[in-house]
């Protein structure tokens, strides 16, 4: 076994079927999520963390999932590699992964295939990444463990790959491989994890809050490194963050999540300059910028919904300035509001109208 | 306008670590005027929280003096110091850790009232607490009195922390990353509530944050002080500091900041640092502590002498040999 093709066995059945509605035409998708539902069982009742999410991730694309805490971003990310905790259950939906013309149904992969799928095909760097390294092993031992667990047991080849990647994330590779995690700063550890996540040359990389808890200058270094990595290695990226500025920096497309559903998805410039969902608009209005004029800022009234007892109809209606009786009864699905841009709101045209009027003024 | 309320006079604080001593705050001098907002900005480990705790009277400086209305607080008698602790309150970062989980909101807010004799009967306390809850926008107050912290959202808890700080009618509030743990969508309303306290109750603020954008928004009419490795490197009125920073470190920070605007953030000019590594506080660089990273480093000067904070303009101070030459200590 060698090279990255050794891992995943060809599927028993090739899945044919429906692309979600928003596939940019002509681009091939690496990962398709189709009507995914994920729940947690708790003493209080069922937490509906992901509710009917469909999205396509294209080859080489960076997609940002934004939203407040508890909007289901992380659960969605974990579901893609089936790493959700025991209390959670994927109730419905499909996750289709494509490689070399083959399609794989991630949700029905057997345990060995799933193990190969993770990291080798689709790697994830978790939120508490700074604690993700084993404190009693040197970095090199952790790198080698990863490689051998994925049947890439040639030490010298693994080492070469690790050296290349560490150099790419602007670390002194020899020194870092010899270090214990505590000898590295937070920013260095985060870069080690980025390099390790790419060790097996995955097609998809999922980053959960990659720069939260890092200082501004370190954050900048990570952003620059990510940009460079994407250019050199051409993987697809899913970026989970509550930080809009990170999405503005790195994403090609942005999906806004609220109460477990995607309420708006579109090109990054579209989303930031021409948002059509009142929640996205509200988020953008709530964040101050340093450069440029003093913007009028406003908070979104109320607080995020309780995922056990959710409001009827559109889940955003209790906080939404545009809400009317229709919103209380019916929840809309995503519908096209512009080129490659979709939103789930009855009043998106009113949002557009007011934004344009404001710009004109 | 009406003179200095709080003054830090060459304040330092060290902590023992094994056989060594860490200099968390190094020779900081600052004056905060009555009714002013001063933002202390810096990265983690720069000493901003320690400075906040020193100002709140929770930590004694190892050198230097804290003057409140011109009186040295560590030279005060017990009664004077108790008065000081009443006049200066602190709001902590983490609203999940700063409220006692087994006490109701009523109990949390009434304790300081009884402790300081601001209320004698339960009835008096009730009235006062209702007022406070209204000030921090938790309405109707009756709904909150019997609740426990776990029943409130992060934003609501932080409002309770502010209400608790207000129980003793403080004149000065130290807000240490007070909105950092609150969801983005409600941060602004918290900040607006705090600014209202300044306008209506005349509270003076030391606002500590790592987020320059927040500092800009909250302290537009005040000043920003930038800290690096225990020292203040620049102090200026907020608009000047944001639009035209002088110290190389302030410039680097502002240029590195990602912004929630794709066009802007992708075309921003960046200051490139010479090194990404933050020096250890246990082994600080010689001379100017920023010299190993500074893009304007001048050999033979910066690594030899520590620059002192010097005035370079109207109400504007910088500690840098190249920006304010000839001011070396």
3D architecture notes:
- The complex is a heterodimer of chains A (361) and B (329).
- An eight-stranded mixed β-sheet of chain A has the order 6-7-8-3-9-10-12-11, sandwiched between helices.
- Chain A has helices at 73-80, 111-120, 139-149, 155-168, 173-178, 186-197, 216-233, 244-250, 268-273, 278-285, 325-329, 348-360; strands at residues 29-42, 45-58, 62-66, 88-99, 102-105, 122-125, 204-208, 236-241, 253-258, 261-267, 335-338, 341-343.
- Chain A is α/β, with parallel strands linked by helices.
- Chain A is 33% helix and 23% strand.
- Chain A folds into two domains: 27-251, P-loop containing nucleotide triphosphate hydrolases (Rossmann fold, 3-Layer(aba) Sandwich), CATH 3.40.50; 276-360, no CATH class.
- Chain A is built from twelve helices and twelve strands.
- Chain B has 329 residues and is of the alpha/beta class.
- Chain B folds into two domains: 4-104 and 165-238, Rossmann fold; 245-329, no CATH class.
- Chain B is built from eleven helices and twelve strands.
- In chain B, the strands form two sheets. Chain B has an eight-stranded mixed β-sheet with strand order 6-7-8-3-9-10-12-11, with helices on both faces. In chain B, strands 2-1-4-5 form a four-stranded antiparallel β-sheet.
- In chain B, α6 runs parallel beside α7.
- Chain B is globular.
- Chain B starts with a strand and ends in an 11-residue tail after the last strand.
- The model of chain B has no long low-confidence stretch (mean pLDDT 91).
- The A-B interface holds A 68-69, 170, 185, 187, 215-221, 223, 242-249, 268-269, 272-273, 282-284, 286-292, 294, 297-301, 303-304 and B 43-44, 153, 155-156, 183-190, 192, 210, 212-214, 216-217, 220, 242, 252-254, 256-266, 268, 270, 273, 276-278.
């Amino acid at each position: 076994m060698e090279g990255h093709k050794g891992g995943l066995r060809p599927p028993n059945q090739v899945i044919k079927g429906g692309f979600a509605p928003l596939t940019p035409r002509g681009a091939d998708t690496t990962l398709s999520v189709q009507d995914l539902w994920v729940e947690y069982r708790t003493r209080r009742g069922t937490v509906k963390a992901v509710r009917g999410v469909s999205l396509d991730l294209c080859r080489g694309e960076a997609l940002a999932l934004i939203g407040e805490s508890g909007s289901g971003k992380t659960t969605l990310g974990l579901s893609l590699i089936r790493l959700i905790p025991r209390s959670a259950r994927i109730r419905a939906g499909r996750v289709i992964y494509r490689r070399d013309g083959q399609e794989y149904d991630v949700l029905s992969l057997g345990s060995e295939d799933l193990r190969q799928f993770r990291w080798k095909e689709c790697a994830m760097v978790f939120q508490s990444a700074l604690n993700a390294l084993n404190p009693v092993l040197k970095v090199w031992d952790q790198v080698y463990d990863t490689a051998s667990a994925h049947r890439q047991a040639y030490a010298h080849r693994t080492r070469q790959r690790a050296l290349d990647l560490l150099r790419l994330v602007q670390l002194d590779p020899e020194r870092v491989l010899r270090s214990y995690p505590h000898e590295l700063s937070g920013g260095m550890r985060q870069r080690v994890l980025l390099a390790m996540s790419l060790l097996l040359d995955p097609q998809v990389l999922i980053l959960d809050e990659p720069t939260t808890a890092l200082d501004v200058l370190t954050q900048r270094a990570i952003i620059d490194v990510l940009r460079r990595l994407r250019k050199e290695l051409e993987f697809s990226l899913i970026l989970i963050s509550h930080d809009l500025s990170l999405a503005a920096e790195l994403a090609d497309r942005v999906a806004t999540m609220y109460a477990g559903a995607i309420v708006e998805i579109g090109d990054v410039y579209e989303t930031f300059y021409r948002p059509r969902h009142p929640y996205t608009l509200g988020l953008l209005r709530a964040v101050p910028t340093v450069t440029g004029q003093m913007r009028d800022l406003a908070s979104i009234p109320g607080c995020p919904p309780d995922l056990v007892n959710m409001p009827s109809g559109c889940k955003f209606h209790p906080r939404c300035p545009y809400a009317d009786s229709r919103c209380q009864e019916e929840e809309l699905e995503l519908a096209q509001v512009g080129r490659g841009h979709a939103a789930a709101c009855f009043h998106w045209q009113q949002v557009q109208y007011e934004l344009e009027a404001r710009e004109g003024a | 306008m009406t003179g200095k309320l709080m003054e830090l006079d060459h304040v330092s604080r060290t902590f023992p670590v094994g056989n060594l001593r860490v200099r968390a705050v190094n020779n900081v001098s600052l004056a905060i005027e009555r009714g002013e907002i001063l933002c202390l900005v810096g990265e983690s480990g720069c000493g901003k929280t320690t400075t906040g705790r020193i100002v709140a009277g929770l930590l004694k400086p190892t050198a230097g003096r804290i003057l409140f209305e011109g009186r040295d607080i560590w030279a005060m008698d017990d009664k004077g110091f108790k008065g000081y602790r009443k006049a200066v309150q602190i709001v902590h970062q983490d609203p999940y850790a700063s409220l006692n989980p087994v006490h109701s909101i009523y109990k949390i807010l009434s304790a300081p009232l009884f402790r300081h004799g601001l209320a004698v009967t339960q009835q008096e306390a009730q009235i006062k607490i209702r007022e406070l809850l209204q000030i921090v926008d938790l309405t109707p107050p009756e709904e909150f009195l019997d609740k426990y912290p776990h029943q409130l959202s992060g934003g609501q808890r932080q409002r309770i922390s502010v209400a608790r700080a207000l129980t003793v009618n403080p004149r000065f509030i130290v807000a240490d990353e007070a909105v950092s743990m609150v969801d983005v969508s409600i941060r602004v309303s918290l900040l607006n509530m705090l600014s209202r306290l300044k306008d209506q109750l005349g509270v003076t603020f030391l606002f500590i944050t790592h987020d320059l954008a927040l500092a800009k928004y909250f302290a537009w009419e005040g000043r920003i002080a930038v800290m690096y490795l225990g020292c203040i490197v620049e102090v200026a009125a907020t608009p000047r500091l944001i639009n035209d920073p002088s110290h190389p470190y302030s410039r680097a920070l502002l240029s590195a900041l990602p912004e929630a605007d794709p066009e802007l953030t992708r075309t921003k000019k960046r200051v490139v640092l010479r090194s990404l590594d933050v020096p250890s506080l246990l082994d600080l660089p010689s001379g100017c502590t920023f010299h190993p990273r500074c893009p304007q480093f001048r050999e033979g000067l910066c690594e030899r002498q520590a620059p002192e904070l010097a005035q370079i303009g109207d109400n504007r101070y910088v500690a840098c040999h190249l920006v304010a030459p000839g001011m070396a200590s």
